[in-house]
Amino acid sequence: QLFGDLNPVTARAMEILSELLGFVPKVLKSVKTSEYRKLYRDVIIKVTKPIIDVVINVENVAENAKDFQHNLIRIGISYDLVYSCLHTGEWHAVPADQREVFTLLSFLRIIYMLICGKGWSETLNDAIYIADMGLMLGAKVFVEHDGKDLDLLAEVVSILAKANKPDLSSEPPLKRLKVDIDDSSKAVCEVSILHQPTLEYFGTHHYDNREPALLEGIIDDWPALERWHDPNYLIAAAGERTVPVEVGSQYSSDDWSQRLVKFKDFIAQHLT
Question: Of 7, 117, 126, 129, which has the maximum CB count within 10 A?
Fold first, then answer.
């Protein structure tokens, strides 16, 4: 147990956590130079310093277990406060800095969840959910890494998702998705129909002459055409991701609404 009584973390889990902790000093640096409200800035700085110590010495977690638990609660309170602010009034009027704060709190909440969580698999799923909510509601916060500016939460969720590939070997395979293609539009097509034309032919006869054409078969070799028919692949690739789903016949209908669901649940309920 690397983290004492807090969390029986595997070597792989520690590797993932180490990747995420690498962003922490850069986040702290950006917050110190920001113009965020003092309340948010002070909370972020206060809870960030202990996890910078984790980067230096993992034993600090076990030695200060209660402090880490208290900081997780402190982040949760601030997170809920900003979340409420984001849902007050009209979306376009939400200040950009509030959305940035939500992104940073999401990131720090993920770090503390992974450190303090009891069950790694369940905690990882919860962390992916927090990251997805941050991506949907927060604003992009860029951090420099290896000479590149990276979208903080996009990078975080990528790391988490790679570590969360489900084992579907014991599950019965789902049936392939059937996609019906309506070819009736071809009957009234008033432009040339080209089947897998060469780039040279298309360029000479259509692109250079500014003549439109309907192109067929040019993406037949794309792996997505095969993989995206397979719900087992989709669940393995993104089953734990949270996505917005529009429910109802049309926007103007009284029954129209929007829900957030796990992608795997959406597939199970609507596509299989």
Answer: 7
Rounded CA-CA distance 37/241 in Å is 31
- φ, ψ for residue 24, nearest 5 deg: -60, -50
Is 265 within 8 Å of 242 (Cβ atoms)? no
Q: Can you tell me whether residue 97 is helix, strand or coil? A: helix
Which residues are within 8 A (CB) of 19 and not within 5 positions of it... i.e. 6 or more apart? 159
> Which two tokens mark 251?
């926007």
Which residues, 6+ apart, have CB-to-CB distance to 156 below 8 Å? Answer: 20, 23, 107, 110, 131
**Interval 183-227: pLDDT, tens:** 665 667 788 999 999 999 999 999 999 999 999 999 999 988 888
Please tell me the distance from the alpha carbon of residue 158 to that of residue 241, in angstroms, as a whole number. 11
Distance set, CA 196 to CA 70, 187, 200, 219, 222 (Å): 62, 19, 12, 9, 13
pLDDT digits (tens, 9 = 90+) for 65-94: 788 889 999 999 999 999 999 998 888 899
Q: 61: exposed, middle or buried (C-beta count within 10 Å: 0-12, 13-18, 19+)?
A: buried
Q: Say which residues have a Cβ less than 8 Å from residue 259's Cβ, sequence separation at least 6.
A: 244, 245, 247
Tokens for 127? 């962390």
